[in-house]
UniProtKB/TrEMBL annotation, chain A:
Domain of life: Bacteria
SUPFAM superfamilies xrefs: P-loop containing nucleoside triphosphate hydrolases
Membrane topology: Peripheral membrane protein
Name of the molecule in the record: Octopine/nopaline transport system ATP-binding protein
Domain ABC transporter: 7-251
Species of origin: Shinella fusca
Location(s), subcellular: Cell membrane
Coiled-coil ranges (or none): none
From TrEMBL, chain B:
Listed Pfam families: BPD_transp_1
Recorded GO CC terms: ATP-binding cassette (ABC) transporter complex
Protein family: Belongs to the binding-protein-dependent transport system permease family. HisMQ subfamily.
Species for this entry: Shinella fusca
Keywords tagged on the record: Cell inner membrane, Cell membrane, Membrane, Transmembrane, Transmembrane helix, Transport
Major location category of this protein: membrane
The keyword Cell membrane is assigned to this record: yes
Gene Ontology molecular function terms on file: transmembrane transporter activity
TM region positions: 20-43, 86-110, 161-183, 195-217
Topological type in the membrane: Multi-pass membrane protein
Domain ABC transmembrane type-1: 13-214
Subcellular location: Cell inner membrane; Cell membrane
GO biological process: amino acid transport
UniProt-recorded name of the protein: Octopine/nopaline transport system permease protein
């Protein structure tokens, strides 16, 4: 359903002690949007992503997931979620893919994928297994379903982690530098899966350093700098003549890919 | 070597094995449950609960088990509250005193072993669980406890073997388990060497079986750390 706002973030601030990492960031994602968040390390893009599913608690600001606002309260001057139950529910609607995969090491790949649907969503196991196998097939590791994470390459682990997130049928997928921990030759297989997802119309927010992905797959590019949105726009605008001086300088560091 | 005496001593001692096993299994069971309570308090983040757990662990690890057992066996009856309470019919039984002190003591050690297991759980795996909507007991039950238990298992099997040997102390509060029966037999026959050798052999066999069981459990819980089977490697 294009035109439906899946994610809306208003004026998010985040401080660690006296250091303000996010200085008021707003962002809307409509159904099917694929937004690349770019920025130098330390610009706050990962922190921003982690604030959305409350792995970090924003100091200030509002977050709406599919129209539902995350209720926050102030206690001793600290902002925190009012209800853990709501947080759990919101998180179950946001798929998260981590830089270092974070698969559960003691479970097989299939067990990793069905864990959320079976134990968080409390859905029938047989149904979840069938869906999980289809997802593993889709990301190209169906033959690994009974292997353990340690037996897989980084690229395979990340694809398993994407399948695990998809198994929750999320409304929005959050990717936190999904290819940064991978050997160069394994990056492509993960990006291919992400591109396929984007083409299916999944709403995605991707923190990345992959300029080719930002340019060719996403429909919006947001460039963060020093805790603020420096500039944003379509890839054509951003990588074309409309680029801000700071963004131009930033992509200059990726010279080979331009 | 007096085979006839050895075998008759062995038969006498073997009759006490059920009592040793009873002491062992009850104290490991209740001690394990109590350890879960203590470690939950210890890692709760609440300063009062965590302080209590630290104090408990310090007291029961820091003092000799034998003295703890004597305090329970000889000491509790001196308190009127206990002497005249509904608990007394139980607490005056030597077996109950022995199980109680063994369980209290192993709970202190086990709580620390479990805590080291919990600390070894990767924060990243916990974060992944939170990110799909797990929290509270579900997170503990599905992710933290299974991983922590795997980390704690080698140290915990050592603790269990120590418990098996510690049941021998119960003989000093008049429980007729293997060591107690051995001492009675020695006082009747004055054949220290043979009788204690038989007793030691019984403990060795029991511990061998326990260690085999624990090794089996560890093996079945650590598939993820072994090399992949050939079928998982190809393609």
């Amino acid at each position: 359903m294009p035109g439906v706002t899946r994610l809306s973030v208003r004026n998010i601030r985040k401080s660690f002690g006296s250091h303000e990492v996010l200085k008021g960031i707003s962002l809307d994602a409509e159904d099917g949007d694929v937004i690349s968040l770019l920025g130098a390390s330390g610009s706050g893009k990962s922190t921003f992503l982690r604030c959305i599913n409350l792995l970090e608690t924003a100091t200030d600001g509002e977050i709406f997931v599919d129209g539902e606002q995350i209720r926050m309260v102030r206690k001793n001057g600290q902002s925190r979620p009012e209800s853990q139950k709501q947080v759990d529910h919101i998180r179950s609607e946001l798929g998260m893919v981590f830089q270092s995969f974070n698969l559960w090491s003691h479970m097989t790949i299939l067990q990793n994928v069905i864990e959320g649907p079976v134990h968080v969503l409390k859905r029938p196991k047989a149904e979840c297994i069938a869906e999980a196998e289809a997802l593993l097939d889709k990301v190209g590791i169906a033959d690994k379903r009974h292997a353990y994470p340690a037996h897989l390459s980084g690229g395979q682990q990340q694809r398993a982690a994407i399948a695990r997130a998809l198994a929750m049928k999320p409304k929005v997928m959050l990717f936190d530098e999904p290819t940064s921990a991978l050997d160069p030759e394994l990056v492509g297989e993960v990006l291919r899966v992400m591109r396929a997802l984007a083409e299916e119309g999944m709403t995605m927010l991707v923190v990345t350093h992959e300029m080719s992905f930002a340019r060719n797959v996403s429909n919006r590019v947001v460039f963060m700098r020093q805790g603020l949105v420096d500039s944003s726009g379509t890839p054509d605008d951003m990588f074309g003549s409309g680029a801000s001086p700071a963004f131009r300088q930033f992509i200059g560091h990726f010279g080979g890919e331009q | 070597m007096d085979i006839a005496f050895l075998s008759s001593a062995m038969v006498t001692l073997l009759k006490a094995v059920p009592m040793t096993l009873l002491l062992f299994s009850l104290s490991v069971f209740f001690g394990g449950l109590l350890a879960l309570v203590i470690v939950t308090m210890r890692v709760s983040g609440n300063r009062i609960l965590s302080g209590f757990a630290k104090g408990y662990i310090f007291v029961f690890r820091g003092s000799p088990l034998l003295i703890q057992m004597f305090l329970v066996f000889y000491g509790l009856g001196q308190f009127g509250v206990i002497r005249y309470s509904f608990l007394w019919p139980f607490l005056r039984e030597p077996v109950v005193c022995a199980v109680l002190s063994l369980a209290l003591c192993t709970a202190g050690y086990s709580a620390e072993i479990f805590r080291s297991g919990i600390r070894a759980v990767s924060p990243k795996e916990i974060e992944a669980a939170r990110a799909i909507g797990m929290s509270g007991f579900l997170l503990v039950r599905r992710i933290i406890a299974p991983i922590a238990f795997r980390h704690a298992l080698p140290a915990y099997s050592t603790e269990i073997v120590l418990m098996m040997k510690s049941t021998a102390l119960a003989s000093l509060v008049t429980v007729w388990e293997v060591t107690g029966v051995a001492q009675r037999l020695i006082s009747q026959t004055y054949r220290t060497m043979e009788v204690f050798l038989c007793a030691a052999l019984i403990y060795l066999v029991l511990n061998f079986l326990i260690l085999q069981g624990m090794a089996l459990l560890e093996h079945s819980l650590s598939k993820h750390r072994r090399a992949a089977p050939p079928s998982a490697v190809k393609a």
